[in-house]
Amino acid sequence: MGAKAIRFLVGLSAGFLVLPHPVSAQEVIYIVRHSDPPSTLNLDEILDETPLSESGQQRAKMLAERLKDAGVTAIYATQATRTVETAEPLAKTRGLEIRVHSYEDSDGLVRQLRSENGSDRVLVVGHWSTIPEILKALGYPEEVKIERSAYDNLFVVVPREKQAPMVLHLHY
């Protein structure tokens, strides 16, 4: 999908949210996987301390460019260096602090989102294994699988009162 199409869809979802409608949680939650780690490492060699590759840093900047006008007011990332580094360009652009949470507690993250960010537009940076858990905890009934080699997934989650959230699955 091209950059213009992504900007259109993200803008559309952000614009949709300014219309009055009842919500029981956030206006919107953007969920992405961390950007690319160094390609010289095998998957079993990637640790919490593993930083982003040069291409991963560029992808993180691209994400910040895509979401800079989306009204993000809170950012969450796991304790892994690459999730924090993925969130940093947008956090700097928006003047926000990155809130670190454990990747072992997706339900706890969702409880925190609901209790502390009830009317916010939130970015959550996770992992191939945690994004499906987070979507499920948010009430999304569909099974989501993310390939371990895919770093361009962007889920736009719009909570709806007494219904499953609306979820757009994009790529950036």
UniProtKB/TrEMBL annotation:
InterPro entries associated with the record: His_Pase_superF_clade-1, His_PPase_superfam
Keyword Isomerase: yes
Gene3D superfamilies: Phosphoglycerate mutase-like (3.40.50.1240)
Cross-referenced SUPFAM superfamilies: Phosphoglycerate mutase-like
Keyword Membrane attributed: no
Keywords: Isomerase
Protein name: 2,3-bisphosphoglycerate-dependent phosphoglycerate mutase Phosphoglyceromutase PGAM BPG-dependent PGAM dPGM
Species assigned in the record: Mesorhizobium prunaredense
Taxonomic lineage from the root: Bacteria, Pseudomonadati, Pseudomonadota, Alphaproteobacteria, Hyphomicrobiales
